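Two entries, shown back to back:
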Amino acid sequence: MVNRSYYGHDTQLFGVEEHRLVGGKGDGMRLFEVRNGSGLEFTVSADRAADISRISYKSVNLSYMGSAGYVAPAYYDQPEFGFLKSFTCGFLTTCGLQAIGTPSVDGDTPCPLHGTISNIPADRIYYTEESGKIQIHARVTDAEIFKQKLVLNRVISCEHGSNVLTISDTVTNEGSSDEPFMLLYHMNMGYPLLSEKSRLAVSSSTVTPRDDWAAKDLDTWDKMLAPVPNFQEQCYYHEFKEKRPCAKLYNPDAGVGLAIRWDASQIPYMTEWKMMGERDYVLGLEPCISKLEGRAELRKNGALQFIKPGETRRFEINVEFFDNEAAWEAAE
């Protein structure tokens, strides 16, 4: 820690400030602005499942903010692709907990694009600061009478003097029935971290295109483009043999990069969302527990996961940030 005698209040260098937005579709939304005093700054959106809307390192933006901007949950349009009307993107949008990917109807249950969890406000959220460690604690309840009773408990952590961010989640089934369970960490890289100069590396053992359109460029899945008018998105599934996968991106022009790591026994896949369109210019590196073909299709193929009554599933994502290329290259 810096010698305390040099500054009057902690927020001169680091800490958390809570704000509310005024005006527009984000009016009234609660935001926690976090600075670790070592170049890492990010925003946690309390009313959107404690997701991370913005992030920067050494004053360089790393994330993509969708054209919808901040949108309060009251504007959420659930059916099918209505999710996109309020898709902030940000650095992290949590998708699930009972649906991700293609909209479908599973039995008599409509399953909209990427589920509903990211449009649920935290029941409670607070922060702690102890010995240079900052943590945001949140509880988000995905529950409905006669249906699912799922609870997401999230802790987002960083430390003064460190360039690492940790997202630690537990999901518990507090109901009395087995429930379909799907989860995707929709992590979105944006300009200036993302450009045609960006270098992408993923420690995958196999890379599979999601469809024929993605297949035509399979050999350049790791090459970024300058923004293209009317670009059609391409998605690739990454699978891993190693226990701790790593997906990393660096832009030599911006002088910053990051590496995302997780436990493959918790999260076996990563979806790469390559979207090189004008204004819609974003690279998604998205650890997920299942593929994105929709809940009905996964059930049909025997690939749909369930969470049992009283069961708790645990997940952890670590993001390391870099301001030099050599350190980024060495990361694995």
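entry 2 starts here
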Amino acid sequence: MAQARFEGSPAAEADVLKPRRQALALYDETLDRMHLDGYVYPAIQMPPPDETMPQDGKLSGGPHSDTSWVNMIGVPAVVVPAGFYPSGLPFGLEISTRRWHDGDLLGWAYAFEQATHLRRPPVLVDKGLLPINP
């Protein structure tokens, strides 16, 4: 299979670059219109499986994360601890902001963690989080 070149490709402009610019413009326009510094939203849709937890005989294919969209439009984001599921698995909140405001973002994340004290050091396990029944 031949490798496609992204640079200079008309398909890249139509399929990736133009939609990315449009999404970023909507992101920034909403921040401006609503006088916001950033967004806060759940970082995960379901508890993540660990590598030893089969689901229907295989590892889950997702959806796990609701956060990849910020990578696609190129804005900074950070996830902070926000609590725990009844099983003890952690969940987080993602905070995103305008491009080039990474320092503000890290300050907000630090302030949130200091105010909430929700972070717990991880408990390392040898054979996964849940027992596997043969």
